[in-house]
Write a structure and sequence with these properties.
The chain is of the alpha/beta class and 354 residues long. The chain has a single domain, classed as Purple Acid Phosphatase, chain A, domain 2, CATH 3.60.21. It is 27% helix and 24% strand. The chain is built from eight helices and 15 strands. The strands form three sheets. Strands 4-5-8-9-11-10-12 form a seven-stranded mixed beta sheet, with no helix packed on it. Strands 3-2-1-13-14-15 form a six-stranded mixed beta sheet, covered by helices on one side. Strands 6-7 form a two-stranded antiparallel sheet. A hairpin with a 6-residue loop joins strand 13 and strand 14. Helix 2 packs parallel to helix 4 and helix 3 packs parallel to helix 6. The longest helix is centred in the N-terminal third of the chain and has 26 residues.
Length: 354
């Protein structure tokens, strides 16, 4: 009887141990599959007068696509000849030429290549600046992006039986002025305070209508290129948190359209981080911020939504989509000149309504 009890106890321990390991395996980050992936590299904040070795780093990553997220030059002018000359400086750089030869490039703008620091719809040369932008980035003459005010647009990539949608937002042409933190209110941080009324916009009515139509289209994975951070915690600098009603409107629109697979990429802030924003009516929204290609900042801000490490060195982002897997895996990566500094992996099913 004693031997039987001892044997029964051993069997219980074995079953318990097996249960623990099975549970752990279910919660582990999935192993990197061996199947083919689609690579999207991206970055922002690249001063035309500085060397840009991070572009060489991007080329070595062998991306299928590179997306510029704004401040692609530092124009900061109302003289369109000056703006053109600064684009020409970028074009003359060997690092940029190497990138351009190696992969397709898409682009959105932010304030410094739009025209002036922190400017929005009141910048008087936005139409002229758009024309220079479109020509420099070789946007096709028949592109929808040339048919309306602003630079917003979309592209699609077929990945096996999956569809990748690239949504490029314009966060400048239609954006209302921000509320300055003047005189300084100690309840708020840095330059700007959030709007408390819904009488301001980032995207403008026409772009919002266009966006709803785009999110209603069939796609499995949607990369949303926003020059401004979306998924982080308010810190008083420019971002979607300056107009929380617009940020909430975006989340509600994702839920309304049942748009699966949304991942934001952003720039602007001169540091890199990955944010995971929890929502009440949608799946978690990831925002991968890569900034800058040449620019850095003296400090970073707290961010309760941050996962992984913050990068204060020059950096490049990379999203890998392992689309041939039965359960497609998405890898979010941030690189400095030495390699990966921050990364996060998840299954496509984790950002889906299905």
């Amino acid at each position: 009887m004693k031997n039987f009890n001892r044997l029964f106890t051993i069997l219980q321990l074995l079953l318990l141990t097996n249960s623990i390991f099975c549970t752990a395996q279910k919660n582990e980050t999935p192993a990197t599959p061996l199947n083919e992936s689609f690579k999207i590299a991206f970055g922002s904040c690249a001063h035309q007068d500085k060397e840009q070795p991070m572009l060489q780093k991007a080329v070595k990553l062998n991306p299928d696509l590179f997306i510029y997220l704004g401040d692609n030059i530092y124009g900061d002018t109302r003289d369109m000849n000056v703006l053109k000359n600064k684009y020409e400086k970028l074009a003359s750089k060997a690092e940029f030429q190497e990138l351009k030869k190696s992969t397709k490039i898409l682009s959105v703008w932010d304030d410094h290549d739009f025209g002036e620091n922190d400017k929005g719809r009141h910048y008087p040369f936005k139409k002229e600046s758009k024309e220079i932008f479109m020509n420099f980035w070789e946007v096709p003459q028949n592109s929808e992006r040339r048919t309306h005010d602003g630079i917003y647009g979309s592209e699609y990539v077929k990945l096996g039986d999956k569809t990748l949608q690239i949504i490029m937002l314009d966060t400048r042409t239609f954006r209302d002025d921000l509320l300055k933190n003047e005189p300084k209110n100690s309840a708020y941080k840095n330059d700007y305070v959030p709007y408390t009324k819904k009488d301001s916009t980032i995207l403008g009515n026409k772009q919002w209508k266009w966006l709803e139509n785009e999110l209603s289209k069939k796609a499995d994975i949607r990369i949303i290129a926003s020059s401004l951070q979306f998924g982080h915690e308010y810190n008083g600098y420019e971002s979607w948190t300056n107009m929380p009603h617009e940020q909430a409107k975006f989340v509600d629109l994702i839920a309304k359209t049942k748009a699966n697979g949304v991942v934001f990429i952003s720039g602007d802030v001169h540091w890199g981080e990955i944010s995971k924003m929890k929502t009440n009516n949608s799946y978690p929204l990831y925002d991968v911020t890569s900034s800058g290609i040449t620019q850095t900042w003296t400090s970073t801000e707290s961010n309760k939504n941050r996962i992984g490490d913050v990068i204060i060195q020059n950096n490049i982002g990379l999203i890998e989509i392992f689309y041939k897997d039965k359960e497609p895996l998405i890898k979010l990566n941030l690189f400095d000149k030495n390699g990966i500094v921050s990364n996060h992996n998840f299954l496509l099913s984790e950002i889906s309504f299905n």
